[in-house]
Design goal:
about 400 residues; mainly beta; 4-stranded antiparallel β-sheet; 2 helices; about 10% helix
Length: about 400
Amino acid sequence: MVRKRKSTLKASGTLSMEEINYLTRKYRTARAKRNATILFFLIMVVAGTYMLITEHAYSKVYKAASYTKTSSDNNQYVAFHNGIVRYSRNGVTYLNHKNKELWIQSGQFKNPIIDVNKNVFAIADCGGNSVQIFDRKGLKGEFETTLPVEKISISNQGVISIILKNGNTPYIVTYDSSGNILVENEVSVSSLGYPTALDMSEDGTVLAVTYLDTGNGSLKSKVICYNFGEKGKNKTNHIVSQKEYDEEIMPEIYFMDKSNLVVVSDHSFIIYSGKDVPKKKKEVTLKQEIQGTFHTSKYIGFILLKEDKTGYEVCLYNKAGKQIMCKDIKGEYSNVSMTGSEIIMYEGSRYCVITKTGVERVNKDLGMNILSVIPANGINKYWVMGTNELRVIYLVR
């Protein structure tokens, strides 16, 4: 006869719906807290690893690949989308990260200048009449201007504004990508001054221009913003804002994003705010002499001559005009740009990378005449364009 074991379990009765719902909520809350804790630690590990890699000084540069250049030595380079634009007097070539030509567009430019936006870029012949507009697939439009080109700025939609030379009566003309004139302004130098810089908003609605006026024996600059949309249609010459600055020269102006505009003078920078009607928000005076400028959609940067004139420093500001980093640098660099959180400088065969927090990641002599340095896909990876080759390099400890 088989003896039955006594069960140690005792019936506790039937659970009510309230008790079932309570236990379910308690279980789900505990699971959510556990998952959140695991996710938090994973994020901390990933962020810590990333910071360890990116905020670290490297002593060596490894050449992972090298591609010999077969074209002429007068090429210039700029990053665009996931590739590289190579342009020269003979036209434009779009390259992938292995130096493979994705497309080629011929052209004739005595002095090519370029302006790059997110989805399009434009090449024009400074002093000539040729203008070509491209997207990542190739030529989007081309046309000839009636007067010599001086400066250009292109919006993300392919609308382009151009300062055209015409003696003492220059023109600022805005075209679509096919060359159709959208807006034409004849500049009265006697009342406005001569246009020195311009930039279009990303959507092509607002055009910001700086003018230099030396009339009546005085020097002053003007910042004028034109709105070609609803806000400016009933305004004289589409002007929605205008401001004068005495004893200042303003050679640079740019939109950081949709609503922030920056004007750089010879000893300060001014932040304007407003998507449709940009207005002055803050002016920051720089005590040192400006040697170079750069910016991204988040940061405003300068290379400055130190006050004691013994060297240089790189300083970084946010959109509010607050200084977030200033660091002494070794050597002199005439080429500077910023991508993401990295400031890239180069001169001759030497290049230097500094992070937005002031960490000098690398400062090396590559033994080649550097024409451009562009961050590549991946961590610690860069494209370096030289006179005779394109290199892919990695930073290593």
